[in-house]
Amino acid sequence: MVRLAAAGAAAGLVVAAIAVPAVGGAGLGFVTAAGEVDLKPLDLAEPPPAEVTIVRDAKGGEIARFYEEFREVVGFGEIAATMKTAIVAIEDFRFYEHGAIDVEGTLRALATNLQSGKVSQGGSSITQQYVKQVLLNSADTQAERNAAVEASYARKLNELRYAMGIEKKYTKDEILAKYLNIAYFGASAYGVEAAAKRFFGVSAADLTLPQAATLAGAVQDPNATDPNLGKEHRERLLNRRNVVLDRMAELGKITAAEAAKAKAAKLGYKATRIPGGCESSKYPYFCLYVRHEILSNPDFGRTAKARLTMLNRGGLTITTTLDPAMQAAADKAIKKYVHPSDAPVAAQALIKPGTGAIKAMAASRRYGTSAARNEISYNVVANTAHGGGIGFQPGSTFKTFTLITALQQGMKLDDGLAAGAGYRAPAYATFKTCKGQNVGDPSHTVTNDEGSPGWKTLRTGTWDSVNTFFMELEERVGLCETVKTAKSLGIRRADGKKLQEYETFTLGINESDPVTVAAAYAAVAARGEYCAPLAITQITDRDGRTTRYRPKCRQALDPAIADATAEVLSGVFTEGTMSGVGGLGRDAAGKTGTTDDYASAWFAGFTPDLAAAVSLGDPRGSQQYKLTGVTIGGRYYGAVQGASIPGPIWRDTMSAALRDVPATPFTAIDTSRFEGCSDSCRPAKKPADDEATPEVTLTPEDILE
């Protein structure tokens, strides 16, 4: 109450001073302002200042920082005593003696202002400066920001009312701590802790006398003394530091000898790199995924603006699913086969079955905007919703969805079809989209990049990845049914557009991303339980409140169907396209993906404990820059297939990532349901490739349809 009484007395002096007629005709404005004075304490809304959000991996290591203002709030006891002494000495040396305002300083400023006819001198106490910073930081519009700093008596009086409320609400130590945490010191450092780290590479608790004096001097005009802006700015900052040291000696806070010694010290500005942003992250692609997940997902805020504010100002701690050891395995494997300087880029995502947890996201190119360093400026591992591009065609990895559809319709593992050397749709109406539209071009012949024609079962057709077999199979089970199976496993186009439903759907014509494909294969590993990709497990706010985020899962497949699919895909390693690459020495299943004319190459696979998908393509345009006659990773390839580079990357990654994970076997298939043949195991007669195919005339309406 003593401080409030003093503030009231001071307020009377201020009003009296304002009411004095001024030189130059300015008195009228002052009198008008005085008439509006109602100096009662006002409660100031104090939204917390913007703080740094820290993103951590599953083990607690820091991945990245997001912020609008680089600030770390610390307590009064976490600030060096010399820092507190320095700031009080230079900014408000009677801070602990006066109330909401410094009467002497205010009257001195008023006298100067009355002579000039305008507000040209401040005289604000630390409390008033804190109020000003709160108003400035909480402003949403430019008009509000202008009002917070305008040179007017109305603003100063309003500031005083709030200051009186602050003095009533907090102790002097609390006010000083709040001011030091909100003040801007220059060099993009907000608050004393961030400034101590940015300027000198130390915490606020460890500031020395010359360092503290430097920061205390910077707050008066942080832009003019910003050491990051060049030599002249640093010289101004050094001069300002010495002013603070002289003032501290004048007030008896330090001795003249201590001041002289501190003034002899160099500025010592270290320009410590501000941590934050995905470009500076060790895991930039995962960082991008997390950032876009928060900005686009309503789970993290009702509006896009609210989500951005929360991320950049909230002082959150975001715990993620990333496993550093698995990430290191993915990085090492990619580096072994694809160089950062190569034109094609390899990308890989690792996902834990049954949770959707993304354990790693890796790519061969560095993330950034430098063309000279061959950097890539988007998230090549993810879809556009998570900062990615349009993706690459996944090729034969999509044959798995046709296989699953066949099993769902009652086919057994030894059921088969006769596959020719080429496939042409018998008629335009052979395939129907899920909207009932006819598709299928009988003039286009699908050929085999891998495998040979002949009688193929679900097993052998998959192992050898025979295109014509899967065209026949999709014709039998239905295009729409195959599309529905893919959708049930989370398959979406990387660019966010609708899936293209053409007869070649089974051959992987829809551009995809590794995260999406890995999540689909993880569902098979989890016996049919699809879980949406998950990157964030919990968020702790600045007040210590924690919100946990659980996997979003659903049963997409009959577990027995998933088991039978895994049984077939496991043969890809022992009997099929990956037999020359080798397996993991534990139960594993997967599928190579090689697109038409070698535009891109993939491998997607899983164990019961981990799933992964690897893509390889040229971001300049995979259809134009194909994977033929290329040198990748220092090795020449006439043509790149799924087993050429993506398969070995997958194998090496999974071997290292699962090194300390006990092997889990696949669930044995229901032999009574899937073994043997549902019809006859004998090949059905298939028309020879050179036999006439009925001619179909396509009208313009048909083509548009």
TrEMBL record:
Family matches, as Pfam families: Transgly, Transpeptidase
Q: Which SUPFAM superfamilies match?
A: beta-lactamase/transpeptidase-like (SSF56601), Lysozyme-like (SSF53955)
Catalytic activity field: Preferential cleavage: (Ac)2-L-Lys-D-Ala-|-D-Ala. Also transpeptidation of peptidyl-alanyl moieties that are N-acyl substituents of D-alanine; [GlcNAc-(1->4)-Mur2Ac(oyl-L-Ala-gamma-D-Glu-L-Lys-D-Ala-D-Ala)](n)-di-trans,octa-cis-undecaprenyl diphosphate + beta-D-GlcNAc-(1->4)-Mur2Ac(oyl-L-Ala-gamma-D-Glu-L-Lys-D-Ala-D-Ala)-di-trans,octa-cis-undecaprenyl diphosphate = [GlcNAc-(1->4)-Mur2Ac(oyl-L-Ala-gamma-D-Glu-L-Lys-D-Ala-D-Ala)](n+1)-di-trans,octa-cis-undecaprenyl diphosphate + di-trans,octa-cis-undecaprenyl diphosphate + H(+)
Which residue range or ranges hold the Penicillin-binding protein transpeptidase domain? 350-614
Q: Where does the Glycosyl transferase family domain lie?
A: 62-248
Q: Does the keyword Cell cycle apply?
A: no
Q: Which domain of life is it from?
A: Bacteria
Record key words, sorted: Carboxypeptidase, Glycosyltransferase, Hydrolase, Multifunctional enzyme, Protease, Transferase
Q: Does the keyword Protease apply?
A: yes
| UniProt xrefs under InterPro entries | Beta-lactam/transpept-like, Glyco_trans_51, Glycosyltr_51/Transpeptidase, Lysozyme-like_dom_sf, PBP_transglycosylase, PCN-bd_Tpept
Q: Which Gene3D superfamilies match?
A: Biosynthetic peptidoglycan transglycosylase-like (1.10.3810.10), DD-peptidase/beta-lactamase superfamily (3.40.710.10)
Q: Where is region (Disordered) located?
A: 677-705
Q: What is this protein called?
A: Transglycosylase domain-containing protein
Q: Which organism is it from?
A: Nonomuraea monospora
